[in-house]
Design goal:
about 400 residues; alpha+beta; Rossmann fold; six-stranded antiparallel β-sheet; Glutathione S-transferase Yfyf (Class Pi), Chain A, domain 2; six-stranded mixed β-sheet
Length: about 400
């Protein structure tokens, strides 16, 4: 699967830019603040409907007053392959207008859960590489990103759980503020039954996904660390217990028991204190939590191994690779890990969009499948063949042309 073209109309700092993409490695090179991350954000938005960085609707609109438009559009051409190796072409379009976003697939309105499974993307960013040392929200998002992009059913399940969680929290807040009428408590009891069922389904899906990822994760981690003496594993924490081997019945029993223990406290507190929104993922080195026993470099390498395992799991289960987005991650890795990542990227059949301020860390690669683009104040140009051949040269940017 790969994007064949990308057009940005009044999006961020792009006025009207169209780019023809290659199926292999696409490098976007330029100084900071020129729009490189905006390009990857546009692709991510096409897949997920939301940005990977804090954003509001007005942030997506071009602020050039000469444009005087309160709308923006991102369009793309997408080529996918079925398990029978039939090639299918699609057109994607995302419109920002009047404070809303609307997505179309081949000219018809569609939902973002459909897009996430049809057009999966995997993001590497400095923020994602820091997931281990950050809070549990970031680690839960690692797992949920796999669910959302592998299965439309799982994406809908997560959406339904989040909707139910919001409703339950709103009701608990009302109760905490003094509404203890029998009708209110009865509504909470009914909603809690649905909540426990969905909480079990989400948790079970996460655990099954982690178990499917673990063999590939161990292999990728061993390659990145270039050693076999460490043992790498996952733990999934529910109320302080490792539930990585639990089945759905065990999960339901544990969450239900915790609900009985905290039911009164939830009504006093005014929010849900149980469920998958409270769980955590632990990534271990030799059975030790890497949050406390791993260096910053090791933590980043483990997230890198997780993402590579996610990519390979997509390919083995769905028969196609997701599109990979690498936003300035090379500057976050040491030279050895950069080299190992580049080895993987050169071997994979996935399309990869990479942003960087320079390419001095890279190596020569085939011109048939790959391309270098320069980004300068919202203008993207394809570098000349001579510049691409000199990809490792620090003065590559001086040899770019239209």
């Amino acid at each position: 699967m790969n994007l064949t073209s990308l057009r940005l109309f009044q999006f961020r700092n792009f006025a009207n830019q169209e780019i023809e993409l290659r199926p292999g490695l696409c490098f976007f090179v330029g100084r900071n603040g020129q729009g490189k991350t905006n390009l990857l954000e546009a692709v991510y938005l096409l897949s997920r409907g939301e940005s990977f960085r804090p954003s509001q609707h007005e942030h997506f609109l071009n602020r050039d007053r000469s444009a005087a438009l309160d709308r923006a559009r991102v369009t793309a051409g997408l080529q996918t392959e079925t398990l029978q190796e039939f090639k299918l072409k699609h057109s994607l379009s995302l419109d920002f207008s009047e404070g809303r976003r609307s997505m179309t697939l081949d000219g018809k309105r569609t939902g973002f859960s459909t897009m996430a499974s049809l057009f999966p993307v995997v993001l590497f960013s400095p923020e994602s590489l820091a997931a281990i040392k950050e809070g549990p929200d970031e680690r839960r998002q690692l797992i949920d990103n796999v669910l959302i992009t592998r299965s439309e059913r799982d994406a809908q399940m997560l959406k339904e759980f989040q909707k139910t969680l919001r409703s339950r929290n709103a009701l608990l807040k009302t109760i905490a503020e003094g509404d203890r009428r029998p009708s209110t408590l009865g509504t909470l009891e009914s909603l809690t039954k649905l909540f426990l069922l969905l909480a079990t389904q989400v948790t079970d899906a996460r655990i099954q996904t982690l178990r499917a990822l673990e063999p590939g994760f161990r292999e990728s981690a061993a390659q990145i660390f270039n050693e076999n003496r460490h043992h790498f594993s996952f733990a999934y924490e529910i109320s302080g217990q490792d539930a990585i081997t639990w089945n759905a019945n065990q999960i339901f029993d544990a969450i239900s028991q915790r609900h009985r223990e905290l039911e009164r406290r939830e009504m006093d507190y005014g929010a849900s204190l149980i469920g998958p929104q409270k769980h955590d993922l632990r990534i271990n080195i030799d059975q030790n939590d890497s949050r406390y026993y791993g260096s910053q470099g090791q933590q980043r390498a483990l997230i890198l191994a997780f993402k590579i395992a996610q990519i390979n799991l997509h390919q083995t289960t769905l028969g196609r690779y997701p599109v990979l987005l690498l936003d300035d991650v090379m500057s976050e890795l040491d030279s050895d890990k950069r080299g190992r990542l580049m080895e993987y990227l050169e071997q994979t059949r996935a399309q990869v969009l990479i942003t960087a301020t320079d390419l001095t860390w890279s190596r020569h690669f085939s011109l048939e499948r790959n391309a270098v683009f320069t980004v300068d104040n919202g203008i993207v140009t394809l570098a000349t063949s001579s510049a691409i051949r000199a990809v490792g040269s620090a003065n590559m940017l001086e040899d770019a042309s239209t």
